[in-house]
Amino acid sequence: MKKAIILMGILLIPILFIVLNNKDRGKVSKDNIIFRDKLSDYGLFKGKIADLVPNDQGISYELASALFTDYAEKKRVIFLPKGKKIVASDNGLPNFPDGTIIAKTFFYPKRGTSQESKSILLETRLLINESGQWNAATYQWNSTQDEAFLLADSAAVPVLFLDGKSVKRQTNYIIPSRTDCIACHRQGDRILPIGPKIRNLNRVVLRDRDTIQQLEYLKARGIIDIPPLRLGSLPSYDDLNQSTAHRARAYLEVNCAHCHNPMGTAYMTMLDLRFEAPINETGIWLKQAKIIGRMSVLGEMHMPQKGTTLLHEEGITLIKSYLQSLK
To answer: Source organism's superkingdom (predicted)?
Structure first.
C-alpha cells in the first residue's frame, strides 16, 4: 500500500507542476484591431508591391540567426510611426512603440536562368502593435504575384524550387493560420515578436555598398535607442568559424526556444532552449535522444511543429554533432 501511494505521488508530480505553472496563464486576447483584406491596403511598400521596397517609415533588418522555413528566404521590415523609436533596455526583445508594424515576407528567390527557377512570393506575416498588444495575421500572395490577401485559416501551396545549393526540391508549403502564429509567438498570455532581439540584431550588414554594424546603422538612422550596456551577440549557426556548441545553441534559440522556454507553449516539456540558459538548466542533457529524434522525422512528431514540411538536413547534422560532443 505504501509503495502504491509513493508511486501515485511520483506520477502526480508532473501534473501538479503543470497545474501550478499554468494558473497564471490566461487566454491570449482577441485582436484589438481589424486587419485589412489586402496587403496593399496598408501602403507599406512603394511602387510595385511585389518588389517589397519599404515606404519612408519602413526599414529593412537582418538577423544573425534565422528561423528555418522549408529553405524559404525572408524579407524583414519594421515600420515605425513617424517620430517614434524602438527602445532597448537589455540584450533581449526591445520595446516597440504603439503603431509598429513588423512585416516578414517568405519567398523562394530566382536561382539560375532555367525556366524552373523563378521567384515565388508565398506569404507576408504581419505583427501590429496596438495599445500595447501585438496582433498577428497572414497574407497569401496570389498566383499573379501582384497582391496578398488576408487568410482566415492555414493554406497549402505546392511549390517547386531550387535551394541554396541548387538542389531541386518540391513540397506543399504550409502558410500558418492565426492559431498557428499564436502557438509560436505566445509568451504567457501575450503575443510577442520572436526574432528582433537585440543580440540577434547585433550583426554586420551591407548598407549603401559598405559594411556596418546593424545596431549602429539603426541608431544613426534614429530608429533605435540603446543605453550604454555590454551588447551580446547571437552567432550565426551557419558560421563555421564559430564553435559547434555556440552554433547549435543559436540554432535551438531561433528554431525551438520560442516554445521551449518557461513562458512558452511547450514549457511543460521541461526543456529551456534559450541561448542564455546555462546548459545544466536546459534539460538538453536528459533529452538528447528525443531532441534529435523529433527533428529527424516528418509528420505529427516533427519538431518544430509549425512552419516546416521538409527536414533541415544541415540543422540536423549540426545538432547531432553538438549532442555527440556532450557525451
So the answer is: Bacteria
* Domain assignment present for 124: yes
Q: Does 315 lie in the same domain as 188?
A: no
In whole angstroms, what separates CA 282 from the centre of its chain?
Answer: 20
User: Which residues fall within 8 angstroms of residue 156, CB to CB, at 6 or more apart?
Assistant: 172, 173, 174, 175
DSSP 79-96: E--TT--EE-SSSS--B-
Distances (CA, A) of 52 to 43, 55, 61, 124, 217: 11, 9, 13, 10, 20
What's the average model confidence in pLDDT over 179-202?
92
Q: Compute the mean pLDDT over every residue in the chain, rounded to the nearest whole number.
A: 90
The pTM (predicted TM-score) of the whole model is: 0.89
Handedness of CA 46, 49, 51, 57 (dihedral sign): positive
Alpha helices, H only, the chain: 2-22, 178-185, 198-201, 214-220, 244-255, 288-295, 313-326
Check whether 110 has a pLDDT greater than 50: yes
Residue with cell 516578414: 104
Side-chain-side CA neighbours of 97 within 13 Å: the count stands at: 14
| CA-closest candidate to residue 82, choices 97, 95, 94, 93 | 97
Rounded Cα–Cα distance for residues 321 and 107 (Å): 30
- For residue 300, the one-letter residue type is E
- Tens digits of per-residue pLDDT, 215-248? 999 999 999 999 887 889 999 999 999 999 999 9
- Cα separation, 269 vs 290, in Å, equals 11
Same domain (yes/no): 49, 155: yes
Domain final residue, candidates 190, 209, 234 = 234
Q: Which residues span the domain enclosing 104?
A: 24-234
Domain edge (last residue) among 206, 234, 262: 234
Nearest to 64 by CA among 227, 247, 244, 216: 247
Alpha carbons 252 and 67: distance in angstroms, whole number: 10
Mean pLDDT of the 174-203 span: 93
